[in-house]
Design a protein that fits this description.
It is built from 13 helices and seven strands. With 329 residues, it is an alpha/beta fold.
């Protein structure tokens, strides 16, 4: 790996880590899937040609750690693809996380700093990702900074803009095409952090200046890793390059920001259409009440919290039903 990217890599290459990955990481992830889920599955809607030279798996974001970890496990078992994974530097607070990142080809996405520093890092990060893709490597990246607490998954245009900054990209369309984005949909039957997200929404409502502490982040990570998730589905959709090829002439008539908006909408359509929709009924209502009982915050607003819990499970269903792909992929 080129020396100019030494600062961005959390992982360390080497034969010893490859052995540790095979003997420790993969079996641990598989055992964790047996312990905390009713099955973690991978559904391939894309063709083998889409992945022949690697891809950027841009996904919605449900869990801080497991989204990337289980996708990496599934891709290695099924396709012998080991993706590089973008992880925010705000998650480097505990030794066990640093070990995990070193073993799992993670690279650093800086979340703090002045506007100028963030722009410089975005340029550097984009260069690094284009460097990986030029070598046929695959990458996982979340479609937005942080998780969508309300389940309304939308691709941040800033993420796409970052991808266009590096690698002497030229046009937006050329830069995105080189990344070969395969939108990836992640569906959890139950989110182990749902009650924590609902509590955060009330705390933020009551105090706009409220912020999570590092201890809150660590507790959320542990809850996400070890909590029950029910059924879990990863669904990889076709490369958006097919859509770009069909609409390039139309896109080229738009200003740069509008191009990014249209590309983000297409990624969202593919993710929403690929959601796994789980049946709900009386048992689910009982589940929601059990999650409400876990919330312990000042001035607990039960009606608001119940509404937010239902909202985070209903929004994916609404988006799935409303997306109109018109047979485009």
């Amino acid at each position: 790996m080129a020396d100019q990217y030494k600062d961005i890599r959390a992982y360390r290459a080497g034969g010893l880590l490859q052995v540790a990955d095979f003997l420790l990481v993969m079996p641990s992830l598989y055992c964790l899937s047996l312990r905390t889920s009713d099955g973690v599955r991978l559904d391939m809607q894309c063709s083998k040609d889409d992945l022949k030279h690697g891809a950027l798996f841009l996904s919605n974001h449900r869990d801080i750690v497991m989204d990337a970890a289980w996708l990496s496990m599934l891709l290695r078992y099924r396709l012998n693809i080991r993706p590089y994974m973008g992880i925010g530097n705000n998650l480097y607070g505990r030794w066990w996380l640093r070990v995990f990142f070193r073993l799992n080809r993670c690279f650093t996405v800086v979340r703090d700093g002045s506007p100028r520093e963030l722009l410089q890092h975005s340029q550097h990060l984009s260069d690094y990702m284009h460097h990986l893709r030029s070598r046929g490597k695959s990458i996982w990246l979340a479609q937005r900074e942080g998780r969508a607490k309300d389940g309304n998954d939308r691709t941040q245009e800033a993420v796409l803009k970052m991808l266009t900054l590096g690698g002497s990209c030229g046009s937006v369309i050329d830069a995105i095409r080189r990344m070969n984005i395969c939108p990836t949909s992640i569906s959890y039957e139950y989110d182990p952090c749902d009650y924590l997200k609902a509590a955060e929404m009330q705390l933020k409502r009551d105090n706009p200046d409220w912020k999570k502490t590092k201890e809150d982040d660590i507790f959320s990570m542990r809850t996400g890793v070890f909590g029950r998730k029910g059924k879990v589905m990863y669904r990889i959709t076709p490369s958006i390059n097919h859509w770009l090829n069909l609409h390039q002439a139309e896109l080229e008539t738009l200003p740069r920001n509008r191009q990014l908006q249209e590309i983000a909408r297409q990624i969202d359509r593919q993710i929403h259409a690929a959601y796994e929709i789980y049946p709900r009924g009386k048992a689910f209502d009982d589940y929601i009440e059990s999650r409400l009982a876990l919330i312990d915050i000042p001035r607990k607003d039960t009606a608001f919290l119940r509404e937010k819990l239902y909202e985070m499970y209903n929004n994916p269903v609404i988006n799935h039903e409303n997306c109109n792909l018109s047979g485009e992929f």
